[in-house]
């Protein structure tokens, strides 16, 4: 696997408006930076993971749908926001029923049905720099797939060394309950559509290029999709093209 | 008698803890019902992008599996502009909300 499901934990400290800084000496500035750093700790991946907004009734405005908010929402409601729940929607396309279309910007995966309809699922997609676009196909399907952490990931987290030969499928496996392996012709792209052990991450730009789904959703899709099905991945401004 | 400096430090420490700084909690409080989430970017819906893709393939006699939308945006008049690529050639398609292709031009 080429780095699927790695999550950067690099932390940055975001500081509030510079207009708050008064010429009162270095000590004041240091204290201000320290307090601001505690108040507004955001990670790099949190900043870039939020390309969507959710309505906050407390502030009465739309706010960035960050990993923190996503975790909080999932904890409170034990499900993803309604937008990302599985539903049948109108879908005007000339693509054949059985085609998969991924809208990475809106975090939707469509499975085309007859009569201009599609099943829409919520997904998590590649974070900044890991997005790609292209036309590929489902080359293989696997129930409870094995996961092999990439070498770079093991170097960062030596505890994963025990899985160098692969982590067996199961409830702890980051690939979740099912995986669809995406191929470009006969070649494995190393990208997958798979389940997740982080259901709160649906709706975020958080993966290393793989498409994440809820385990229930990926199981539902797994049962419907056939080997060889066309998969169109739309990603706004992605520089990496596959299959075209 | 407590010195003013000590008293100020003690008050600051209490305020620091009361404000929640010392816990390092970063989780913002928010309230939402249902959970409608919108994209921050006004791109064309996927089906409209693919409508453009089919139209470009048809107009320029290209294999449909080789025409890919790479970006899109909403125009001031409510239509969508979709930029597409095929074998190194680029096209710009304008489509309305009812999936009617308004125009296609090579870029």
Outline of the structure:
The complex is a heterodimer of chains A (244) and B (107). With 244 residues, chain A is an alpha/beta fold. Helices cover 19% and strands 31% of the residues of chain A.
Question: Would you mind describing this structure in some detail?
Answer:
The complex is a heterodimer of chains A (244) and B (107). Chain A has 244 residues and is of the alpha/beta class. Chain A has a domain at 82-242: L,D-transpeptidase catalytic domain-like (Beta Barrel), CATH 2.40.440.10. Chain A contains five helices and 16 strands. In chain A, strands 5, 6, 7, 8, 10, 11, 12, 14, 15 and 16 form a ten-stranded mixed sheet that branches. The two termini of chain A are 22 Å apart. Residues 5-47 of chain A have low confidence and may be disordered. Chain B has a domain at 46-106. Chain B is built from two helices and five strands. In chain B, strands 2-3-4-5 form a four-stranded antiparallel sheet, with helices on one face. Helices cover 27% and strands 28% of the residues of chain B. In chain B, a hairpin with a 5-residue loop joins strand 2 (68-74) and strand 3. Chain B has helices at residues 4-18, 46-59; strands at 37-39, 68-74, 80-86, 89-95, 101-106. Residues 15-26 of chain B have low confidence and may be disordered. By secondary structure, chain B is an alpha+beta fold. The chains are: A alpha/beta (244), B alpha+beta (107). The interface between A and B is large, with 57 and 41 residues.
Write the element-wise H/E pattern of chain A from the N-terminal end onward: EHEHEEHEEEEEEHEEEEHEE
Strand content of chain A: 25-35%
Most extensive chain-chain interface: A-B, 57 and 41 residues
* Beta-strand content estimate of chain B: 25-35%
Number of strands of chain A: 16
Low-pLDDT parts of chain B are: 15-26
Given the helix and strand composition of chain A, which structural class is it? alpha/beta
The geometry of chain B reads as: elongated
| Biggest sheet details of chain A | 10 strands, mixed
Largest sheet features of chain B: 4 strands, antiparallel
Order of helices and strands of chain B: HEHEEEE
By secondary-structure content and strand pairing, the structural class of chain B works out as: alpha+beta
Q: Low-confidence parts of chain A, pLDDT < 50 over ≥5 residues?
A: 5-47
Mean of the pLDDT scores of chain B?
A: 80
- Rg over CA atoms of chain B: 28 Å
Strand order of the largest sheet of chain B: 2-3-4-5
Name the assembly state: heterodimer
CATH superfamily of the domain at 82-242 in chain A: L,D-transpeptidase catalytic domain-like
| Count of discrete alpha- or pi-helical segments spanning 4 or more residues of chain B | 2
CATH architecture of the domain at 82-242 in chain A: Beta Barrel
Discrete helix count of chain A: 5
